[in-house]
């Protein structure tokens, strides 16, 4: 008989959290800490969503999205998780760029970028200062009409080398483009520039294991392999429960960490929302997806320090189309050394590229496998520039595509960063449409990535808590 992953679950909870991405995990933890009864439902066999890892024979372990996040993660983890988690966050100091326009290494903070843009690119100090001040002063309530392209034109007209330095990492990080609102760029870029790029020492598995232990201490009922099929909504538009693995479980509130569009159109059903809201939700654009190649060296093999994050491109100039193209010439390499995962004496490289779902979605199986293999081969060829003996040293190598991301997280089209910016307004309006229905997770680049997802989970769980205290108060 199939195992019952809901065995012993209660018939009613204060809150059901759908999905265990970083926003879902954080919400579940905060709400349980506040004394609410919380059921966390995750369809996958592992918690973490995109913040995940996998193991392969031979003792290999690969992180999927542990490439770098801003320093703010330390404060958020200390406040909403544990000191143990916060204390494991360390800076990555070796950020490299290698492209036809420039070759440089940086600590990726304001001071070092100012040095590079003034001394190497010859831009006056005053201009650089004004740009950083403008980016840092941007906030969510500012004019959203100005695009990132216009922001760069204002400060660095005609300087596609400077634009590349400033924009390429952010595009790699979250798929944003020059046409996205300047405030989204300004906020994310300034977050990084305050102190540089950080990582979790010990790997994603350690982080998620520690988060799970903390949730258990706070009483969250955690269920894996539990796919929510339906959000149940009463005729007076209030959430009353979920259907999960064929079983109904009642609840007073729902915090969905599933993709925003999946939450509205698949789980809740558009008949439960105003037509104008449905129209707005329909027009929300999804973000692009990713391909990755995971490369592990044989035990005992190593390479010289190549930096931690390396933005490699053979393309002249910054070009979003080229970054998304299947004819990859631009990649981000994450190099993992034994010090990244103490106790695990292995060298690993993960190569990430932005990708479009449609380029992979409908390939017949044999062609799909062949194209994945071509991606692996192309990546190894490229990596040889930095790790000359990689082909002799490699023990395990495999690729993932937008199909992989869709399969594991149910994000429509494998979107690595949920939706574009307009998704945020729709996400925030959900409880005005259906009482007790909330969403937190990747929407817009501010609320995406590890830090954005955690922080959005915090904001929304506070709203959920207020609603549970006074469910009939106006939203
Ligand atoms: C290749 C790649 C590299 C990245 N690199 C970085 C990086 O270096 N730095 C950074 O800050 N960010 C990075 N990110 C982004 C970051 O990982 C995500 O933005 C963040 O982890 C998303 O968290 P989330 O809370 O939105 O939920 P998600 O991670 O999207 O998780 C949603 C969860 O909901 C579950 N779910 C969905 N539907 C259901 C259902 N019906 N029932 C039950 N469960 C369901 C899914 O299985 C999943 O676990 C990267 C992402 C990718 C793909």
Q: How would you summarize what this structure contains?
A:
With 475 residues, this protein is of the alpha/beta class.
Task: Write structural notes for this entry.
With 475 residues, the chain is an alpha/beta fold. It has 17 helices and 18 strands. The strands form 4 sheets. Strands 1, 2, 9, 10, 11, 12 and 18 form a 7-stranded mixed sheet that branches. A hairpin with a 3-residue loop joins strand 3 and strand 4 (60-63). Residues 18-24, 41-44, 49-51, 64-65, 67-69, 173, 227-228, 257-258, 290, 292, 352, 405, 409-411, 416-418, 441-442, 448-450, 453 line the site of flavin-adenine dinucleotide.
Fill in the keyword field for this structure.
475 residues; alpha/beta; FAD/NAD(P)-binding domain; seven-stranded mixed β-sheet; 17 helices; 18 strands; binds flavin-adenine dinucleotide
User: In terms of per-residue confidence, which ranges show pLDDT below 50 for 5 or more consecutive residues?
Assistant: none
Question: What is the name of the CATH superfamily of the domain at 12-51 and 205-285 and 413-469?
Answer: FAD/NAD(P)-binding domain
Describe the global form. Answer: globular
Please tell me the CATH architecture of the domain at 12-51 and 205-285 and 413-469 by its name. Answer: 3-Layer(bba) Sandwich
Count of extended strands: 18
Radius of gyration: 22 Å
DSSP summary: helix tally: 17
Structural class: alpha/beta
Helix % is 25-40%
What bound compounds does this protein have? flavin-adenine dinucleotide
Distance between the ends: 45 Å
CATH names the topology of the domain at 12-51 and 205-285 and 413-469 as FAD/NAD(P)-binding domain
Roughly what fraction of the amino acids lie in strands?
Answer: 15-25%
């Amino acid at each position: 008989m199939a195992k019952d992953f809901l065995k012993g679950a209660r018939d009613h909870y204060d809150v059901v959290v759908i999905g265990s991405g970083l926003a879902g995990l954080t919400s579940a933890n905060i709400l349980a800490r506040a004394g609410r009864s919380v059921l966390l439902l995750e369809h996958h066999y592992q918690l973490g969503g995109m913040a995940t890892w996998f193991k392969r024979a031979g003792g290999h372990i690969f992180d999927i999205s542990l490439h770098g996040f801003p320093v703010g993660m330390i404060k958020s983890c200390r406040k909403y998780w544990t000191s143990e988690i916060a204390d494991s966050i360390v800076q990555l100091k070796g950020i490299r760029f290698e492209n036809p326009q420039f070759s440089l290494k940086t600590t990726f903070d304001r001071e070092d970028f100012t040095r590079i843009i003034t001394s190497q690119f010859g831009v006056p100090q005053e201009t650089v200062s004004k740009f950083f001040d403008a980016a840092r002063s941007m906030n969510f309530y500012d004019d959203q009409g100005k695009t990132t392209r216009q922001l760069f034109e204002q400060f660095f007209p005609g300087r596609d080398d400077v634009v590349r330095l400033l924009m390429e990492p952010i595009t790699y990080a979250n798929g944003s483009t020059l046409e996205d609102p300047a405030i989204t760029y300004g906020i994310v870029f300034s977050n990084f520039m305050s102190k540089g790029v950080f990582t979790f020492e010990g790997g994603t598995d350690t982080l998620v294991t520690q988060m799970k232990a903390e949730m258990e201490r706070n009483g969250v009922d955690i269920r894996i392999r539990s796919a929510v099929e339906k959000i149940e909504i009463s005729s007076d538009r209030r959430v009353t429960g979920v259907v999960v693995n064929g079983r109904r479980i009642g609840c007073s509130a729902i915090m969905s960490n599933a993709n925003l569009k999946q939450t509205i159109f698949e789980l809740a059903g558009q008949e439960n929302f105003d037509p104008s809201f449905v129209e707005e939700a329909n027009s929300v654009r999804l973000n692009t997806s990713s391909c990755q190649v995971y490369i592990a060296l044989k035990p005992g093999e190593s390479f010289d320090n190549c930096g931690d994050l390396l933005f490699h491109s053979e393309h002249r100039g910054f070009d979003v189309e080229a970054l998304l193209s299947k004819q990859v010439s631009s990649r981000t390499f994450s190099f993992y050394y034994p010090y990244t995962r103490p106790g695990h004496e292995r060298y690993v490289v993960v190569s990430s590229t932005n990708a479009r779902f449609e380029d992979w979605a409908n390939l017949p199986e044999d062609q799909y496998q062949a194209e994945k293999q071509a991606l692996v081969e192309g990546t190894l060829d490229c990596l040889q520039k930095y790790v000359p003996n990689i082909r002799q040293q490699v023990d395990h190598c495999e690729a993932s595509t937008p199909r992989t991301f869709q399969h594991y997280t149910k994000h429509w089209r494998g979107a690595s960063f949920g939706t574009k910016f307009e998704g945020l307004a729709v996400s925030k309006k959900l409880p005005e449409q259906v009482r007790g229905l909330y969403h937190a997770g990747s929407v817009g680049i501010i609320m995406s990535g590890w830090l954005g997802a955690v922080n959005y989970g915090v904001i929304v769980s506070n709203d959920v808590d207020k609603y549970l205290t006074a469910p009939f108060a106006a939203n």
